[in-house]
Amino acid sequence: FVSCGSCRNSMREIETRRLQLRKPRESDLEDLAMIYQDPKVMQYRANPNPISKSETQQKLQQLIHHWNEYNFGRWAIVEKTTGKFIGHAGLEVVSVLNEIEINYLLAQAQWNQGFATEAGIAIAAFAFTKLELSRLVALANPDNLASRRVMEKLGMRYEKEIELYDHDWVYYSLNRDQWNDLSSESMRSLN
Question: How far is CA 145 from the centre of its chain?
């Protein structure tokens, strides 16, 4: 996949104005299961159906395993004012594409508050400055307009449509030079 210059020294936590991003842990199971059981949250995913607690346990193990294998992954998102787990966002190796994807998933109660964009900006900054990645991609169901808006707010550009895992996806990308060209003022205004 895309080279990662500093993966061995990656940070386990990122803090933004309103969010704490931390490595997922077993104790997140109950909160994550509640999110994964919401049909609205799951509707645009590769498996668009709510999943059971045991299936959520498997997904959580995959998130933790990804961290153990690559020393980065999806962070648990915790709202700082409440201390509540509200979803996950992060970086995932997509081997079949030879790319690293930025992604995000939030509990429905946290939609339309800018949390995905806030987490995404912090994660993209981490990817390009700390991990020294040269490129990120993002995939979304073509009908998931909210996710596509977040990608665009991060400065990502639509590249193409692809079929993956028996589903159609829009494929966005952002390279380090494009990220560096974005002014810090415009990025701050997105929070």
Answer: 16
